[in-house]
Queue: 2 jobs
Job 1
Amino acid sequence: MKNIRIEEDSMGKVEVPSEAYFGGQTARAQHNFQISKHVVPAIFRQALGMVKLAAAQTNTSLGLIDKKLSKVIVQACEEFIDGKFDADFTLDVFQAGAGTSYNMNANEIIANRANELLGGKKGEYKFVHPNNHVNMAQSTNDVIPTATRVATLLSIPGLLQSLNNCEETFEKIAKKHAKLIKVGRTHLEDAVPITLGQEFDSYKEALHKAGEFIANQSEDLQTLGIGGTAVGTGINTHAKYRETMVKNLTKMIGLHFQSGKNLTEMANNMNGFLNFSASLRSLAVNTLNICSDLKLMNMGPKAGIAEITLPGVQPGSSIMPGKVNPSIPECLEMICMQVLGNDKVIEIACQKSNFELNVFCPIIMWNLLQSMEILTNGLKMLNEFALKDLQINEKQIKKLFEESLCTATSLSPKLGYALTAEIVKTALKKEITIKQEVLSRKLMSEKELDKLIG
């Protein structure tokens, strides 16, 4: 006979592994949703546990749960947050809408552990019930969006740290090479002079703005819908539950949370997540542009621009000996593409509200947290394995500049647009520099020319 226990819910009897801390509803979800083997990141499980812990504290302070039960529920919540029951919290991210399965998975684990602490058996719920006690004054519809907001906010410092580290490295490179003049390019063609410092400072500034955008958009996530329960009306909650819950989460997490003005709106409008995802999309787009430039500047080593050399991190070919590829930027580009795809999923999910609820928070949560995780790790990888040991090829930069046409614009105010254009065309035809062509025409002295174009 299988090592199982029998639990009974509103739909009838259900088999549950005997030693499992989860219960019948989780077992049903495991049976129904065998889709992808993708599970939520630990940060969401921790955030969900924090919501359950704050709820237990709130209900206890309001006199709704006695202190004996509260003590074991709180301990079970803390153990859940610490990851003690990770083996029991493995539901597929693709599941029934709203995240009811996640909510009940947590409720059942916490209830079973609390009962165990009181000498009860798993699945009997003799002392602590998943719905009546652990889920008291809550609904999936306010718990899962709140946990998603908390998980997102807890993930932001790591992302911003990775971003700031890249900024600092770009800034160091920019300052070190502030006077290194190189070819500035527009349309991938020689344009006008620029310093390598100015170029790399632009990358630093782009990332800085992206970080500010992320920080600004995160502020809305500190407004919570907890206490709204099913449709934002607060049914089945104590009059002081909402404000007490927000205070407890603020104290526990160290962020300043506030309650939304209209909790029904917060249940059916997921645009806070959409707007935050837009800030991740913006970072991904900026990062794609920077990676593209790094790859082009690295192109070579002999038959390309080769203005920089990216650190070699692995052999670049299974057939071409000695070939080294820009593997780090390539990986980060794929990460950014995934983020852009995730953002699109979030956009579509946010469009799908019906009346008082948007049921697609689970897929919003998973895509949002995945985007943050891979961007955090990807930017860390870029800084550690590409930027810190980036080689600037000064001789090549100077050679390309001397042979380029980008000094022509500096001549235009002195010689006029038409004559300068003619000089450019002639220099190209003769395969000589613009400086050589100007001197051959005796249009100005070498000293005057050097002062004008460097």
Job 2
Amino acid sequence: MLGATLPALGWPGIATAAAPKPLVVGGLPVTCNPTLPVACVARSTANGSDKSGATPFEFEYSKYNGWPEIKESLMAGRVQAAYMLAPLVMDLADKKIPVKIVSLGHRSGAVIMVRSDSPYQHFRQLTGKRIAIPSRFAVDYLFLRKMLAREGMTPKDVQIVEMAPPDMPAALYAKAVDAYCTGEPFGAAAQRAGYARALRMTRDEWRNYICCVLTVREELIKENRPLVQNLVDYVLGAGVWLDQKQDNRNKAVTIAAGRKYFNQDPNIIRFVMENPVDRVTYGDLRMIRPEFEELMQLSIEAGTIKAPIAYEKYMDESFSRAARPAPITL
């Protein structure tokens, strides 16, 4: 009985310190985000093989169903890190929400889909047609605006409707919309089912496309820089690993599709990874200032950001500059 009560009494040498809780990182079940599940699993695997006795870092994925929910969680401090839309982070930082972008999450990954049996071969043929977008804050909308401008068109030349991406394939099938512009895997889902085809892809039209970025609250940066650095190292390592060979992508599909992460049909995620293989890329996650400034200018023109925001207000490059991509052994 005495031995059983010693830890509760706090006698020295008996009680052990509790292991630190994993860093919860929010994300959406989209194929812009597989670097996050891979980073979580790889970090956990590394912890299991580490015999040094050092306190390990650990990351835990938390699935959200939409950007507004992640935004609210970051604002309230319910999560301290998340993959977020880059323009949303700019806007939050400008409104004095203490958040910073510390890494990219992917490159490319947005598509403009039309029905397979539609006559549309050229973008201009969408004049007057109904096109669905996730929201006017989405980078997919900026992609659509970029394509419109390239054809000498404006948003007034098409009918834009906002719609949740999971609803877009069915809306296209039912001819409720003529086209939709969104991130994967919601283009691939309709294409793989046989009733849709890609009219335009960012891989062809906007190679330096930025959408999802790894964002952390400033308190975490101040309180635990090594943890943030380790997260960035594992995200970058996951990106390099994903682009190394198709076998790695196949492993990532199995991880991401699992119940703990995206909880999706692995065949659809695999379709994104293979058709073509650079439909979404992950290896080049450099943060390049002119690319973010271009994104901001497009957001200002779209009216989702009201005025220019200083780069330093929403960006912390120190982690990417110090990064050493972690070796991924999965």
